[in-house]
Structure formats: C-alpha cells, structure tokens
Amino acid sequence: MQEPLVVIVRATITFFVIFLYARLIGKQQIGNFTMFDYINGITIGSIAATLATDLNMSAFIHWLALTVFLVLTILLQLVGLKSRLLSKVQDAEPVVLMEKGKILEKNLQKVRITKDELMVQLRTKNIFSPDEVEAALLEPDGSVSILLHSDYQYVQKKDLNVSSQRTKLTTEVLIEGELIEQNLRQRNIDYEWLLGQLKAKGIHRLEDVSYAAILPNDTLYVDLYDDQLDDEMNISDYPGPY
Amino acid sequence: MRTFLLYAIPITFIIVSVAVITSGSWIKESDEDLLLYVQNIEAYAKEENWEEAEREQAHAKVVWDRIAKRVQFSVPRNDVLAISESLSRMKGGIEQEDADSIVPEAYHFYELWETLGW
C-alpha cells in the first residue's frame, strides 16, 4: 500500500470538501459564534482531519459524516430563519446583566458569569465605573453589549446641529497597477479624471501605483510601490536576522 | 459561462471525490478474478496438489498487488493488509503442505473479499 500517495489524495479531497462546505455554511458561522457553533466547528474539523489522515478508516464514512454535519447545520439555519421560536431555542435570548447602573445578580447567576468577569467586559469597553452603564446585555454569542447612560454618551453631530453629508465608502480604483473600471463607473468618474489626479501628484505610469482609492470625500488616495521612507519608524531593537 | 462553471466545478469535484472514495466495491472486480484463484488454492490443497496450489497462490499475489493499488484510496488500510496477510498465510500453508491451515484461511479470505469496499 502506498500510504503517502493515499494521504495526498485524501488530504486533497478533504481540503476542497471543507473549503466548499465552509462556503455553503456561510458567514454566519464566524459572525455569530455561539457555543454550539464553536463545538460544531471543532467537530467538523476533527472529522475532516480523520478523513485526511486516518487510513484505517473508510474515507467515505467520514465524508458522509461531514456531509451530515453540513446538511444539519444548514437545516438549523433555515429553521431559525423560518421560526422565531426555534431560532430562540437554538441561540437563546440576550440576558440583561446590568440596568440603570445596577448589577442584576440573579441574571448573572443564571448565565454563570462572575462580577469580576462583568467588570472585565466593562473595562475592555473603556467603562471604568458601573454608574456609566444604562444597560449591559449578554448576547447569545457570549459578547457583552453596553448602552451608556445618556450623561456619558458621546455627543453626536445632530446634537450640535452640525450639517452633515451622506457618508460614502472608500472605492479602490487601482490595485497593483491594474485599473478597476467597474469601480470607476460606480463613483461616476472617468479615466481622464484619474490620470489627471495622478499627474497632479507627479505620477505618470499606472504600473508605479500599488494602491489607489477614491475616498469618501471624493479625493484620491495613492500609495506607490516606492514609499521613499527613512528608518525613523523602525521599532526593532535588535539587529537580527531572526 | 462563469455562473455555469461556478456550480459545475464544485459539483464535478464532489462527484469525482465520492467516486474515488467509494470505488473499492466495484474496482476490486475489474481485474482478474482473485476470488477464483483462492478457490482454486482451496481445491488444490484439498486434493494435495501442492504444485498447482503454489502456482495459483503466486498468481493470486500478483493480481492482489495490482488490485490493492487501485482500491487503496477507498478501502481502509487494515482491510488491505488483512488480505495480504491472508494470502501470505496460504503461501506458508502450501510450503508446509498443510491443508488444515489453508482451508480456514481461504474462508477467512472469502469473508474479507466480500466485505472489501463496503
């Protein structure tokens, strides 16, 4: 038996199977990482590892198990979309940990979180006094969301009656010398305008540009391959190499 | 065309992958009939025709080495090794001219062969 060859074939199959299945499961897995998602992910990884390397077990059995996990995961996602009740059963509801600056001990006990852990969560959000908290909620994915008391909330532009413009995204128009025409059209900008802007910055060849984007304020940001920087910002304190 | 490829490539990949990892059950039959060689070994051993039994065992070994290379992607390593061991035990029995050890080994082989790839 040619074990190395078998491992190469099985590992290649496993690699692309998990790539494909991860795409099918979608982004929810990462964006909403509940305890179940976490354990599900580990189990899928473990089955995939066995599929790739355990030559004493049938490859098909593990492929089948992976597929069952994929189908069940997608089914649960769909069930969650269709039924609000089952969605709650799957992911649980947010739990209020603090209200009007007061710690809700019963709820902390219910979700088995200590006051120390709650304080850590507050501090990591730059809140050093429980007084500042109007409400703190434990989300189903384990993170803590905090609503500040109105006295401690940041002043918004509208509070000051400052006029504001609609915010836009940064749009890439040149990456590694390659023009992205679709993005130019999206921002209603033509090629001549771009060339004019580059010339104004003393750039005459697109190939010299590593990255160029139109900023939300409609100006052009350009980064060249040749950054012409000195060593002033080098924070290394050891000559190396290492 | 791009949309077609976006679906066609993964679907083809899955079909080919499943074909590779499930092919053991039918690919084992695609070469010369190994089962027949072992049945012949059993028959010659019962007749104590050791020369013929040895010839059949040698054929069986060559055929199995070929089949093993094809089924190794879909069959557990233990099963492949078990068949190799079974053929080796038969060879030992033939050398010792011991029909009593060859017949049980042949039946062990039949069981392994039947379940290979399933």
From TrEMBL, chain A:
<keyword id="KW-0812">Transmembrane</keyword>
<dbReference type="Pfam" id="PF04239">
    <property type="entry name" value="DUF421"/>
</dbReference>
<protein>
    <submittedName>
        <fullName>Uncharacterized membrane protein YcaP, DUF421 family</fullName>
    </submittedName>
</protein>
<feature type="transmembrane region" description="Helical">
    <location>
        <begin position="59"/>
        <end position="81"/>
    </location>
</feature>
<dbReference type="InterPro" id="IPR023090">
    <property type="entry name" value="UPF0702_alpha/beta_dom_sf"/>
</dbReference>
<keyword id="KW-1003">Cell membrane</keyword>
<comment type="similarity">
    <text>Belongs to the UPF0702 family.</text>
</comment>
<keyword id="KW-0472">Membrane</keyword>
<feature type="domain" description="YetF C-terminal">
    <location>
        <begin position="82"/>
        <end position="213"/>
    </location>
</feature>
<dbReference type="GO" id="GO:0005886">
    <property type="term" value="C:plasma membrane"/>
</dbReference>
<keyword id="KW-1133">Transmembrane helix</keyword>
<feature type="transmembrane region" description="Helical">
    <location>
        <begin position="6"/>
        <end position="24"/>
    </location>
</feature>
<dbReference type="InterPro" id="IPR007353">
    <property type="entry name" value="DUF421"/>
</dbReference>
From TrEMBL, chain B:
<keyword id="KW-0472">Membrane</keyword>
<keyword id="KW-1133">Transmembrane helix</keyword>
<dbReference type="Pfam" id="PF14276">
    <property type="entry name" value="DUF4363"/>
</dbReference>
<protein>
    <recommendedName>
        <fullName>DUF4363 family protein</fullName>
    </recommendedName>
</protein>
<keyword id="KW-0812">Transmembrane</keyword>
<dbReference type="InterPro" id="IPR025373">
    <property type="entry name" value="DUF4363"/>
</dbReference>
<feature type="transmembrane region" description="Helical">
    <location>
        <begin position="6"/>
        <end position="27"/>
    </location>
</feature>
